[in-house]
Amino acid sequence: MKYNDLDLKNWKELDINVDSLWLIGARDRTGKHSNIYHGNFIPQIPNQLIRRFTKKHETVLDVFIGSGTTLFECEKLSRNCIGFDINEDILNYVKKNMPYPTDESKYEIDNCDVTNEKQFEEKINLSLKKINKKNVQLLIMHPPYLDIVKFTDKKEDLSAISDLSLFIQKFLIVIKNSLKYLENNRYFAIIIGDVYKNREVIPLSFYLLDAIKKKFRVKLKGIIVKNIEGNRGKLGKFGIWKYRALTSDYYIFKHEYILVFKKDK
Ligand SMILES: C[S@@+](CC[C@H](N)C(=O)[O-])C[C@H]1O[C@@H](n2cnc3c(N)ncnc32)[C@H](O)[C@@H]1O
After folding, report:
1. Pick from 189, 188, 186, 185: which is nearest to 265 by CA?
2. Measured from the CB, is residue 83 less than 6 Å from ligand 1?
3. Which of 58, 61, 166, 171 is the most exposed place for a label (fewest CB within 10 A)?
4. pLDDT tens digit string along 152-180?
């Protein structure tokens, strides 16, 4: 395999999930993962993607690094990591937990509005220089799901956008900015959920998928459905949300999508 170093001699024992349905039980709370950030993803997601799509000492770029879930997995799995986020407060938290100063040549996180092309260019070039790399081998993107969770008060924050078309437009800029730095024939993943607005489902993931396919030369490699069992106590079989759903006409979101693409030459 050119893009990972999985030991295929023992392929039956490998705990790499190759199904399109990921039923992940409990959140991995080991190591530096603290689950303090509302809207973070479970460490198992970057862990699976990093091991499947990169080799040791390659570089992962996460343009919405948030509380550092991808960074801490990179550290665990001996990958380099560049992480950006618009939220300075959460970045300060992450910096405290970073493996500085011993490994500063491998990890770089910075405050950046990734929808701003000029700022992105500046920051990515600086970051790549610091870790002595020219490009990245995996791109992970876990954006806000429209304005469902508000992250900062900044107007450039994607979570300030409630309009679907504007959100797609801005997100396509983020993809354009970051795809430039992804090595050809390598992979990027978007972790995204749908939203419920004005009494109906807005399938954000489907709209985004369609827009990406129309705009970029990429191959869609997987639409993974991941459950969020265990993340939301109230969603249990007997929780209040079941009662609320029954007294209305909607279905409770239990899943999110992981869209996996390959950058075509
Ligand atoms: C869903 S969270 C990512 C959480 C992360 N995966 C984790 O595990 O902590 C989305 C992140 O996008 C950031 N964000 C929103 N708009 C942004 C922008 N324009 N530029 C950079 N980051 C942005 C938010 O601050 C937030 O931390």
Report:
1. 185
2. no
3. 166
4. 999 999 999 999 999 999 999 999 999 99
Distance between CA 26 and CA 231 in Å, rounded?
A: 8
Cβ within 8 Å of residue 247, ≥6 positions away = none
Q: Is the CB of 35 under 6 A from ligand 1?
A: no
Map tokens 């876990």 to a residue: 142
Q: Which of 78, 70, 10, 67 is nearest to 44 (CA)?
A: 70
**CA of 192 relative to ligand 1 center, distance in Å:** 12
With a 6 A CB cut-off, is 156 part of the ligand 1 pocket? yes
Q: What is the pLDDT of residues 207-229, one digit of tens each?
A: 999 999 999 999 999 999 998 66
Hey, what domains does the chain have and what are their CATH numbers?
Answer: 35-263 (3.40.50.150)
Two tokens at 259?
């869209």
Which of 117, 151, 205 for a ligand 1 pocket mutation test, highest count of atoms within 8 Å of Cβ? 151
Question: Is residue 64 lining ligand 1, measured as CB closer than 6 Å?
Answer: yes
